[in-house]
Design a protein that fits this description.
Blueprint lengths: L7 E4 L3 H10 L15 E4 L2 H5 L4 E4 L6 H9 L7 E4 L12 H8 L2 H4 L2 E5 L4 H5 L4 E6 L3 H11 L4 E6 L2 H23 L4 H21 L10 H12 L4 H10 L4 H7 L5 H16 L4 H11 L4 H9 L8
Parallel strand pairs: 1-2, 3-4, 4-5, 6-7
Antiparallel strand pairs: 5-6
Helix pairs in contact: 3-4, 8-9, 8-10, 8-11, 8-13, 13-14
Bound molecules: 1,4-dihydronicotinamide adenine dinucleotide and 1,3-dihydroxyacetonephosphate.
The site of 1,4-dihydronicotinamide adenine dinucleotide has 18 residues, from loops.
Length: about 325
């Protein structure tokens, strides 16, 4: 948006962060070499950052969403469109991000909450490469306002009324990406990886539909589109974590060496809670959880999945 000339303010956590971002005019830690557009301001005071904001985009790790929602709640003008870009589920509640926002934000913005999701690897977006996304809301006018604010010649934005599907697609595809990385790390080959990703998508769609999502959403940008980007890309952190697991590192070792969030780890745990709640079978998610937390080796996990009883595809 700022790159298109719209005034945008980046809300930081403290004065030191504001100062270093202002000085460098780039985020040297997370997106080095990508200069801030002139219309991007930086502020650590929420009342200053949010004054006159017609729209707020929140993109923090999912385990930080609630505290950030609390931080901005009192500063949102009635009617401000609130766009969640976080792709995760909260622990231990297993709530979707819009549900967390609805609990924390004032009633005057609750019917303005949207979630944005799609194949949107941050580095490519920051470099101005072409991309598409979906913005979903229970309130069509809010989704349409976000669409027109975010749309540009390089960023094509679709709307959706399937908030559950778009949010679950974005959060759960990260679990599939962990497994795709394992396929890469174990050199399983393209047939096996295609099979894994396809069955993974079927599994997350099954949970999504049981939770109230529209099946077609999982064939769209927030489902298949993001599965393709995340499972294939060297830029994906979730795919990277899977690859490292396959190469023999444990999740605690990988976490200690990473500066970035890999949402698939918490999403696997939250998804298993939802799977029990909605009585859905999720063998890939269960196996992924056991690799992450119970020491199951990725190779044994693959053998287990291949030896499950066979049946019809659907
Ligand atoms: N990186 C990507 O390609 C994409 C990421 N997302 C989603 O956006 C969310 C955040 O991802 P990234 O920024 O890439 O993660 P990251 O791990 O690369 O960076 C974390 C960001 O969150 C900030 N942060 C950390 N703790 C915070 C706190 N307590 N309060 C406020 N800000 C805090 C950090 O300063 C940093 O800017 C995740 O849910 C991710 O799935 C969505 C689309 C693309
Ligand atoms: O969601 C993403 C791309 O659409 C980013 O995926 P990672 O968090 O795995 O890097």
């Amino acid at each position: 948006m700022a790159g298109e000339g719209t005034p945008v303010t980046l809300l930081t956590r403290n004065a030191a962060e504001t100062e270093s971002l202002q000085l460098a005019r780039e985020n040297s830690r997370f997106l080095p070499g990508i200069k801030f557009p002139d219309t991007l301001g930086v502020a650590d005071d929420p009342s200053q950052a949010l004054a006159d904001a017609a729209m707020v985009v929140i993109a923090v790790p999912s385990d930080r969403l609630r505290e950030n929602a609390r931080r901005i709640a009192a500063h949102l003008a009635p009617g401000t469109v609130v766009v969640n870009a976080t792709k995760g589920l909260e622990l231990p509640t297993a709530l979707r991000m819009s549900q967390v926002l609805a609990e924390e934000l004032p009633a005057s913005v609750r019917c303005r909450i949207c979630s944005l999701s799609g194949p949107n690897l941050a580095k490519e977006i920051a470099q101005g490469k072409l991309a598409t996304t979906v913005v979903a809301s229970d309130y069509q006018d809010a989704a349409e306002q976000a669409q027109s604010a975010l749309l540009s010649s390089r960023f094509r934005v679709y709307t959706s009324d399937d908030l559950v599907g778009v949010e679950l697609g974005g959060a759960l595809k990260n679990i599939v990406a962990l497994g795709a990385g394992i396929c890469d790390g174990l050199h399983f080959g393209d047939n096996a990886k295609a099979a894994f990703v396809t069955r993974g998508l079927a599994e997350i769609a099954r949970l999504g539909v049981a939770a109230g999502a529209q099946p077609l959403t999982f064939a769209g940008l927030a489902g298949l589109g993001d599965v393709i980007a995340t499972c294939a890309s060297r830029l994906s952190r979730n795919r990277y974590v899977g690859e490292q697991l396959a190469l023999g590192s444990s999740w605690p070792q990988i976490r200690a060496s990473m500066d970035n969030v890999a949402e698939g780890v918490n999403a696997a745990e939250a998804a298993l809670k939802l799977a029990r709640q909605f009585d859905v079978e999720m063998p890939i998610t269960e196996t992924t959880f056991r690799i992450l937390h119970e020491g199951l080796s990725p190779r044994e996990a693959a053998t287990e999945l291949m030896q499950r009883p066979v049946g019809s595809e659907w």
